[in-house]
Amino acid sequence: MSLAIGVDVGGTKIAAGVVDEQGTIIAELRKATPANDTDKVAALISSMAKELAAEHGATSIGIGAAGFVDDARSTVIFAPNLAWRNEPLKDRVEQATGLTTVVENDANAAGWAEARFGAARGANSAVVLTIGTGIGGAIISNSQLVRGSNGFAGELGHFIIRPDGRRCGCGLRGCWERYGSGSALVTEARELSTLDPNLGARMLELADDNPLNITGLHVTQAAKEGDAAALDCYSTLGTWIGRGMAALAAVLDPDVFVLAGGVSEAGDLLREPTIKAFKKQLTARKFRPEPQVLMAQMGNKAGMIGAADLSR
Amino acid sequence: MSLAIGVDVGGTKIAAGVVDEQGTIIAELRKATPANDTDKVAALISSMAKELAAEHGATSIGIGAAGFVDDARSTVIFAPNLAWRNEPLKDRVEQATGLTTVVENDANAAGWAEARFGAARGANSAVVLTIGTGIGGAIISNSQLVRGSNGFAGELGHFIIRPDGRRCGCGLRGCWERYGSGSALVTEARELSTLDPNLGARMLELADDNPLNITGLHVTQAAKEGDAAALDCYSTLGTWIGRGMAALAAVLDPDVFVLAGGVSEAGDLLREPTIKAFKKQLTARKFRPEPQVLMAQMGNKAGMIGAADLSR
Amino acid sequence: MSLAIGVDVGGTKIAAGVVDEQGTIIAELRKATPANDTDKVAALISSMAKELAAEHGATSIGIGAAGFVDDARSTVIFAPNLAWRNEPLKDRVEQATGLTTVVENDANAAGWAEARFGAARGANSAVVLTIGTGIGGAIISNSQLVRGSNGFAGELGHFIIRPDGRRCGCGLRGCWERYGSGSALVTEARELSTLDPNLGARMLELADDNPLNITGLHVTQAAKEGDAAALDCYSTLGTWIGRGMAALAAVLDPDVFVLAGGVSEAGDLLREPTIKAFKKQLTARKFRPEPQVLMAQMGNKAGMIGAADLSR
Amino acid sequence: MSLAIGVDVGGTKIAAGVVDEQGTIIAELRKATPANDTDKVAALISSMAKELAAEHGATSIGIGAAGFVDDARSTVIFAPNLAWRNEPLKDRVEQATGLTTVVENDANAAGWAEARFGAARGANSAVVLTIGTGIGGAIISNSQLVRGSNGFAGELGHFIIRPDGRRCGCGLRGCWERYGSGSALVTEARELSTLDPNLGARMLELADDNPLNITGLHVTQAAKEGDAAALDCYSTLGTWIGRGMAALAAVLDPDVFVLAGGVSEAGDLLREPTIKAFKKQLTARKFRPEPQVLMAQMGNKAGMIGAADLSR
């Protein structure tokens, strides 16, 4: 049976695992990321992979990392959390390990895991939304990952959903992730609580009475208790997410949307307003079967599992 | 050498041709469409294909038609210009001709021709916009047509670019094609000329002084003469098209956008404002090579050629 | 008892009447407007006024006309329906008649009639919306007409309610009257019926099956019959009107809004969606008594009556 | 010569002055506001006024306070910074002092000072915008203050300039003051610096490298030094202010807009982008003389001076 190694490179730790053809993790290692030293990061990835390969016999390595990865799946052009700039990561790791290596954007890797083994299993066409601080995404079409001509496809957080809207780090205004991400949820909750402390009382209580201390967890806790203000924040968030999904449905016609990432752990708090807005703005409803909207199933190992599978 | 038959079924005529592997049309037939009689349409398509096949030896048939075609590329679920509702067109034509047949949405077929033989030749990833009365589209990814799980992918005209905007025939409001199509150009020109007849004087002159008579051709002619009002209409149109293209670039990261369809015949009148708006709203400009924006090269036979090729 | 003459100058006819202090018309004359000859228009107004004054003894003349009237209430700076450009109308009529004359914008005159004798009688502060082809308005504050420093106050149709929205004859985009007027109602109905002829079937039937023939009367008739599409058009119209009224309430805090003009004849068809949207967007609802929203009571003689009263 | 007492009641201090008919302050007193005790506030206002009146002989008292003041100018219905709820302030102070007293909203009082003695001196019609944490305003028409039927006119910060925009404390979304106030400036600067720390480097440096520490003063300082990011924030602010002013010009046709309040101290940093956007969105530019846009001249004593004058 074929085994592959998946590596998930984060800003604080690196996790590597041996993954079988069913997406099951056989063995796993974790180390702290050597910050700001790209040579050490490549060396550490390589040594972790070699150790696992020596023990389990894997024949390829897939590496998932936040950032822009080129279309040859070999060079990290830019990474927000690491010092990589045009880093030839594939070559470095292949030279050190002797194993075939591919590099992939982390949201693509995680989305691929959902498509192969998780919520979108068996779908010909799927969109996996990773909703965290921003919105990342993976698009599956014809049962393949859509990578685009530069490897930048699936930058779902950055189409403009609100002309002339909130400023975005990408240089534009009104990008989807400024309205449909965990950060947007927190912005909403802080604004509400600053402007109307009575309405936001429960969230303020959880945050030591300082609106700037409110986190996503506070909003989620209050919403789960039934607090009207927190529910309103989730409703606003879901409405924006659903609107963007409807746009993607017109373009891509997927069988299924998968909601993944930290914010998706809110479950129905998120899913219900999302589906409501999605249905409302879906084109050609009379003719098309409605895409399913499912919660991710692969958890936070999705990136490792997907990266391993993509290296096969 | 392998020959295939391409059929372009329109509301008023049916054109069929024998197409070689380089996309060259070897022979061609045209007949009037038997209106509102789906049996006769299928019979006519079949007899035209048989006639061409008998003479030239083709081994497959590709049919392009406006409307929703299922993911098996066999049934026309709904066609706006013909009486087809859940029409099993592939089966009918295969039974009558004995030749392998596929059915494809016409914008997909035309887009495929551009990807195989025209402006997007050689692209791994491309978006072809067919800008006519509405906006149709074809998406090429991994050198394949993106069809979606129901065959409805590429309904590019129907993502919402303007929340709460102009009413659309699809039941939503603010769809891209209500702002970025030939109809939108005409709406704009008529509004302008009604509201400010001095400004719209040249277009009114061309239209017998009745704003409701203004057509796209009048706008184009006036714009070519340098008329400020007509240029303004094209600028508005291009701005909306460019905005939508920027959204698609974030999602799909194509090498190339191809502007096709009747409106694209305006050439630089359309292309310049489109590119300007596109660049302005393109995310991650620092990192990505900019997609090219090219005019279509295959002309109005693109649907026939693409359909033929897709049947191989 | 004091009598005054009110003159309503339209593009096709001139109506003059003798009006008493209770706003009652004692006598009335009507003549066709001498088109495009400003000398003849001034002469005709003067002769009609003299005839009425000779018979009834009035001591002043008030003239209402569409267009921009200067703050001295004497010169028509620009009139859309007549050839007046910087026309010294007050001086001409005073010289010809020997009677004190004032000129006033027609929406101001009609609004003043509502404030003095009609729906806004007794209000310290009121806004009268004249909803016809466009939106005209009159603002009453401290029981006086608000004329502004150039006589141009109350151009209510031209604040931007929709950034980057529909083109307006005034040179901007997104003006309120492009969404909240009778023209907007017709635009909406024509669009709906073009895009979805099934939905618009009843309106099309009334308009000889040509969407471009649909008029406001057709929409109103269909709506009164309960036709869903026509009711939808009225709902859209009222929503925009209500939104704009909420903006005006924040600025002016009137006791009452009066809906006047041709479109207001639709009564509750218009009033209900208007009030719904108005309440939803009214600021400080907790603290303020809600302004009343009333239908005009003075009918199409309002301009004549108001102009007469303003001349006192 | 007639003297009047003006009292400016803030959340932390009360300032009272004797003001002559030219708006000159003859004498002045300041005391800390007795927090949360409305009886003590009324008593302190009264004693300060009596002391000044005894010494200088004033015959009336004008009190300016943040909040909603009824149309009789006697009761404070709601004050955001004090415990007043339906406080009969006029009666209390008249009983204690024996002097005729009027109560006025503070932005109205300050605006009135500009209209009588400051930047809008001599204007028949003016709008004074007090741009601080929010946007307050005063409208002058026919040389009188426009108070509305409940005393709530001039709530200029709360018309909706951005449908479905930022949440506002008043319960709506998209109110003008959420885009055109000092708070909006700070929100913009914090967002920019969080999302793009390189771009926001100078503002971050001034704020101990924490975007949440950025204040309006930091933005102003950086902008005065020529920092591009800070200038961008001011440009965004001015654009929104100018848009709102254009809406008010269509409604009110003032001779002059006066920019007052803390943010107006930025001078040309604010005025230039404001005027640019204002001109761009002003209706009927061909016909109307453009209103002037001036900076306030009365400084932070404007409220006291205006209140005094309004009591005459």
TrEMBL record, chains A, B, C, D:
CDD domains to which the protein is assigned, alphabetical: ASKHA_NBD_ROK_SgGLK-like
PROSITE patterns cross-referenced by the UniProt entry: ROK
Tree of life domain: Bacteria
Any one Pfam family match given in the protein's UniProt record, by short name: ROK
Enzyme Commission number(s) from the entry: 2.7.1.2
Keywords, sorted A to Z: ATP-binding, Kinase, Nucleotide-binding, Transferase
Regions crossing the membrane: none
First-level EC class: transferase
GO MF terms, alphabetically ordered: ATP binding; glucokinase activity
Record GO biological process: glycolytic process
NCBIfam families: ROK_glcA_fam (TIGR00744)
Family per record: Belongs to the ROK (NagC/XylR) family.
The protein's name: Glucokinase
Source organism of this protein record: Luteococcus japonicus LSP_Lj1
